[in-house]
TrEMBL record:
<dbReference type="InterPro" id="IPR011006">
    <property type="entry name" value="CheY-like_superfamily"/>
</dbReference>
<dbReference type="Pfam" id="PF00486">
    <property type="entry name" value="Trans_reg_C"/>
</dbReference>
<keyword id="KW-0804">Transcription</keyword>
<feature type="domain" description="Response regulatory">
    <location>
        <begin position="6"/>
        <end position="120"/>
    </location>
</feature>
<dbReference type="InterPro" id="IPR036388">
    <property type="entry name" value="WH-like_DNA-bd_sf"/>
</dbReference>
<keyword id="KW-0805">Transcription regulation</keyword>
<feature type="modified residue" description="4-aspartylphosphate">
    <location>
        <position position="56"/>
    </location>
</feature>
<dbReference type="InterPro" id="IPR001867">
    <property type="entry name" value="OmpR/PhoB-type_DNA-bd"/>
</dbReference>
<protein>
    <submittedName>
        <fullName>DNA-binding response regulator</fullName>
    </submittedName>
</protein>
<dbReference type="GO" id="GO:0000156">
    <property type="term" value="F:phosphorelay response regulator activity"/>
</dbReference>
<keyword id="KW-0902">Two-component regulatory system</keyword>
<keyword id="KW-0597">Phosphoprotein</keyword>
<feature type="domain" description="OmpR/PhoB-type">
    <location>
        <begin position="128"/>
        <end position="227"/>
    </location>
</feature>
<dbReference type="InterPro" id="IPR039420">
    <property type="entry name" value="WalR-like"/>
</dbReference>
<dbReference type="GO" id="GO:0006355">
    <property type="term" value="P:regulation of DNA-templated transcription"/>
</dbReference>
<dbReference type="GO" id="GO:0000976">
    <property type="term" value="F:transcription cis-regulatory region binding"/>
</dbReference>
<dbReference type="Pfam" id="PF00072">
    <property type="entry name" value="Response_reg"/>
</dbReference>
Length: 231
């Protein structure tokens, strides 16, 4: 029985694509398949877009990372890369361009289904409200950041980090805790990635990133988000 969440498989190996489809449908998801990256971009512009995309790196019409880049211009749909490409540079590029996870082939379909469920739970668990802070506000429903009334684009991990802070205000988190919460224990990134994204996020929401008001450093402990807002 369908659970009314639609997964799109973008994979040019028909046997693997069909195997993934069978496991996802058994888990209750609606599934659509394609071997064309451009098709995925088009589907995400429709009225009823996929809730999550499983995206191969090597596709007949274009590179999966380029597909991800194009999707992030207008969509925050969760993206899980599935690829045999094991080079760290390729994996990091995929995640930096907005991928939410990366699964190496070969993999057991049950593992992939578990990742899909976990990622969709995380997305569904986000509050459906707008929060306003000084001259910026965040809209959970559309996953958009507005600064001075203007929309400011967020990469996927920036969005996830901001939402994590918003859900857990006034709490101190070690770098390791932030890394695990946003990237997961099996991520290919290192702890330095957390500081990089903290800097990126501060540049977007802080009036003076060198003297942050919202994402503050607790020396010797980590970071915390100061909840000082009006709804």
């Amino acid at each position: 029985m369908s659970i009314n969440e639609k997964i799109m498989i973008v994979e040019d190996d028909p046997d693997l694509s069909e195997l993934i489809r069978l496991y996802l449908e058994q888990a209750g998801y609606d599934v659509i398949k394609t071997d064309q990256g451009l098709h995925a971009v088009i589907e995400c512009k429709k009225e009823n877009p996929p809730d999550l995309i499983l995206l191969d790196i090597m596709l007949p019409d274009m590179n999966g990372i380029e597909v991800c880049r194009m999707l992030r211009e207008h969509s925050n749909v969760p993206i899980v890369f599935i690829s045999s490409k094991q080079e760290a540079e390729v994996m990091v590029r995929g995640l930096e361009w907005g991928g939410d996870d990366y699964v190496l082939k070969p993999f057991h379909p049950n593992v992939l289904v578990a990742k899909v469920k976990a990622l969709l739970r995380r997305v569904k668990g986000q509050p459906s409200e707008q929060l306003e802070f000084g001259n910026w506000r965040y809209d959970y429903k559309t996953a958009e950041l507005f600064v001075g009334g203007e929309a400011v684009p967020l990469f996927t991990k920036e969005r996830q980090m901001l939402e994590f802070f918003l859900r857990n205000p006034n709490q101190v988190f070690h770098v390791e805790e932030l890394h695990q919460a946003i990237w997961g224990w099996d991520s290919l990134s290192n702890l330095g990635t957390v500081m990089v994204y903290i800097r990126h996020l501060r540049k977007k929401i802080e009036a003076d990133p060198s003297k942050p008001r919202f994402i503050v450093t607790v020396r010797g402990f980590g970071y915390k988000f100061i909840m000082d807002h009006k709804k």
